[in-house]
Structure formats: C-alpha cells, structure tokens
Specification:
It contains 5 helices and no strands.
Length: about 130
C-alpha cells in the first residue's frame, strides 16, 4: 500500500489524530444515518456506528500510525479490539448520561465524548495494543 510520503513523516500523535478523526467522522455520520434514516434509537445506532468505525480505525492505526509495530496482525487486532470495546463502553456510558440525564442532543454530546475517550485510546494503544517488543 502506497501512502503519500509526507503523511508518513508526521508525528505519531498526528497520525493517530488523522486516523481517529476519520474514524470519528465515520462514527458520527453513521449514528446520524441510523437515527435519521432508519429511526434507530441513538444508543443502538451508536453500537452499529462503532463497528463500522472500528474497521476503518484498526486499518489506519495498524498500517499508518503504528506501522512500526512488530506484533502480528491478529495479535494487535485482538488487543486493539479490546481497547476499542473498552473505549466504546466508556463512550456509551457517557453518551447515555449526556442524553438521558443532562438532556444534551445526541449530535452535540457524541463528538465531545468521542474526543475525550480518544485520548485514553491513544495511550493504551501505543503502550499495549501495538507495543513494540
């Protein structure tokens, strides 16, 4: 896979933000699609959106952000999926609180929550899921 050379020269955290931003946009747009077009409840739509965004996120983090990792594909896939599921559970918990306790519209709450959870995801991904041995 050929990546535009200047992208590979970006700092690792910038690559994480770039891939994560793409995944967050996919996640956000998927939630809106499920809620608005299919009348899916927001919390359920968020589960479907997570699974869609995970595919993009893992691919980008594996082959771009943490491309120097010497872990096997399946080893890092299992670990990154666990990190992502834990991050998603935090996401879903705070999403629930924002929507049902604070009555914040889902389209306002979701990007804020996704951003905050992403910080923890980067740290755990770097130090555990894609850790260099």
């Amino acid at each position: 896979m050929t990546i535009v050379p200047w992208i590979r020269r970006l700092p690792q955290v910038s690559l994480f933000v770039l891939v994560g931003g793409g995944a967050a946009a996919i996640h956000f747009m998927s939630v809106i699609l499920f809620v608005e077009l299919f009348s899916t409840p927001a919390l359920i739509a968020n589960v479907f959106a997570f699974l869609i965004a995970f595919c993009f996120s893992f691919s980008g983090q594996r082959y771009l952000t943490f491309s120097d990792s010497n872990q096997t594909f399946f080893y890092s896939l299992k670990r990154y999926f666990l990190v992502s599921v834990c991050s998603f559970l935090f996401n879903e918990f705070f999403f629930y609180i924002a929507i049902y306790l604070f009555h914040i519209p889902y389209y306002v709450a979701l990007p804020i929550i996704v951003l905050l959870v992403a910080i923890g995801t980067f740290v755990v991904s770097k130090r555990w899921a894609f850790k260099l041995t």
